[in-house]
From TrEMBL:
Pfam families named in the record: PLDc_2, PLDc_N
Name of the gene this protein is made from: cls
Protein name (database record): Cardiolipin synthase
Residues that span the membrane, as ranges: 6-26, 33-56
Enzyme class: transferase
Job of this protein: Catalyzes the reversible phosphatidyl group transfer from one phosphatidylglycerol molecule to another to form cardiolipin (CL) (diphosphatidylglycerol) and glycerol.
Organism: Turicibacter bilis
Subcellular location per the Swiss-Prot or TrEMBL entry: Cell membrane
NCBIfam families: bac_cardiolipin
Transmembrane helix found in the keyword field: yes
Length: 485
């Protein structure tokens, strides 16, 4: 009897595996390497492999919510199509070599070029937190906040306290946090803000529901918009570790921006679209629709002449906006490509264009942290070092935890955002990045990169020789799995 039960169970598992593979081939039409990898996993560990696919391989179930925000987005885009291409041709402050990148982002990513922007760059979270709390204290009307991680520590409580104070004063406060990134944060942390009248919602609660598996698809963006005139974006979440208070991740290096100008409207729009996707009661959105001028302020002519584009991507998009934008960005380089990222797990095409650039004589530097916050991810990252070195790419280990997510091209333009150089950021998470066409900001990032180099170890082939057989085995296995998760 037991033998029959076991045989029947194995048969059911094999049928499930076969059906899953057929769905990948004929329904989803995934990449061949993706199908082969999942087939291997479900063959060697049948039941566990099937469960892993349900958790990590199944695409997100996203309910489309058509709102007035779509009309605003379309209006912005049409205005850009009608006027911005002509405007770019008459602007002398942007290098001509970046015109094709700007047009690509506009046409492929629907990323609008904003003209007047004032930027403030933070490499240290202490400075960013102080500035953010000061801006929150001075808020008069509205505060919209979205973070991947909000810890229940001193930093998280300080933010909630500041937001609750403004909510009691009559400021409209909305807070969205990712339930996966903030999984260990007790809901009681947000209680003071709720009691003060603020709105607090989770982005895709991390629940396991068969055929509604959004657990793997997290909102990795960091957005704060204050009074519709000041905004923040970049790599810093809210937690004591970002302040180098966790000895394991000290020193902590990061990159974040405070912005004013045209880009703020786009960040406000992005916040509300993410907010609309996860709220159940749309009455608050009706208030926004009735008071558009309250949230989408006109741009002051006093702002700097800094051009920016906001590129957003996520599993709700049908195209790979971020990956394509970064590949196009790298292809525009003529002299140098400098990258900082906590994780470097590129797909074959992204890695290929970097190698082509290096073999073409372009100075390619990649800086990653020596301290791992995730063993799986760090070991996968180190699996690429030999290939990078063989292509003539300089690789640096930052002696601390490097969380900065930037690309600097020719020391003339740069990107700052939430995007890691890995498959997860390119294909799975909800992300955003600012493309900054301003050599002053680029040079500021260059100077910070050079300062960071003083705290780095430059890797060579001796590093590869020092790897144990077990480390190399880990790299091989993790690299295969990284393409799936």
């Amino acid at each position: 009897m037991i033998a029959w039960i076991i045989a029947l169970s194995l048969m059911v598992i094999q049928v499930l595996n076969l059906c899953t593979i057929l769905v990948m081939i004929f329904r989803r039409r995934d990449e061949p390497i993706y199908i082969i990898a999942w087939t291997m996993i479900m063959t060697f560990i049948p039941f566990i492999g099937f469960l892993l696919y349900l958790l990590f391989g199944h695409g997100p179930i996203i309910k489309e919510k058509r709102t007035f925000l779509d009309a605003i987005e379309e209006q912005y885009y049409q205005q850009a199509v009608d006027s911005q291409l002509e405007m770019m041709d008459s602007v002398s402050t942007i290098q001509s070599s970046y015109m094709s990148l700007i047009k690509f982002n506009l046409n492929y990513n629907r990323s609008i070029l904003t003209r007047r922007n004032t930027l403030e760059y933070f490499s240290d979270a202490n400075d960013k937190y102080e500035r953010l709390l000061s801006d929150i204290e001075q808020a008069q009307d509205t505060i919209n906040v979205l973070y991947f991680i909000i810890r229940g520590d001193e930093s998280g409580k300080a933010l909630i306290k500041a937001l609750a104070k403004k909510a009691r004063e009559g400021v409209k406060v909305r807070l969205v946090y990712d339930d996966g990134g903030s999984f260990m944060t007790p809901s009681s942390v947000f209680k003071p803000l709720k009691e003060a009248g603020g709105i607090v919602v989770k982005h895709y609660p991390a629940k396991f529901k068969i055929f509604t598996l959004n657990w793997n698809y997290r909102n990795h963006r960091k957005i704060v918009v204050i009074d519709g005139t000041i905004a923040y974006l970049g790599g810093m979440n809210i937690g004591d570790e970002y302040l180098s208070k966790n000895p394991k991740f000290t020193p902590w290096r990061d990159a974040h921006l405070r912005v004013k100008g045209g880009i703020v409207q786009l960040l406000q729009l992005r916040f509300f679209k993410d907010y609309a996707a996860v709220i159940e009661d749309i009455s608050d959105l009706n208030e926004v629709e009735s008071n558009i001028e309250r949230y989408f302020r006109s741009v002051s002519l006093d702002e700097d002449e800094t051009f920016m584009q906001l590129v957003c991507d996520g599993p709700d998009q049908k195209t790979d906006h971020m990956r394509a934008a970064y590949i196009k960005l790298i292809m525009t380089a003529k002299k140098s490509i400098w990258i900082q990222s906590p994780y470097f797990i590129p797909d074959s095409e992204f890695l290929h264009v970097l190698k082509i650039a290096a073999h073409s004589g372009i100075d390619v530097k990649i800086m990653i942290p020596v301290i791992p916050d995730n063993h799986f991810v760090h070991r996968t990252t180190t699996s690429y070092i030999k290939e990078l070195l063989e292509a003539g790419i300089e690789v640096y280990f930052y002696e601390g935890f490097l969380h900065s997510k930037i690309i600097i091209i020719d020391q003339e333009m740069a990107t700052v955002g939430s995007v890691n150089m890995d498959v997860r950021s390119f294909s799975i998470n909800f992300e955003l990045a600012a493309f900054i066409y301003n050599d002053t900001m680029a040079k500021q990032l260059v100077e910070q990169f050079k300062l960071d180099q003083k705290d780095c170890r430059r890797l060579d082939f001796e590093y590869e020789k020092s790897k144990s057989w077990f480390m190399k085995a880990e790299e091989s296995v993790y690299r295969l799995l990284s393409m799936l998760m």
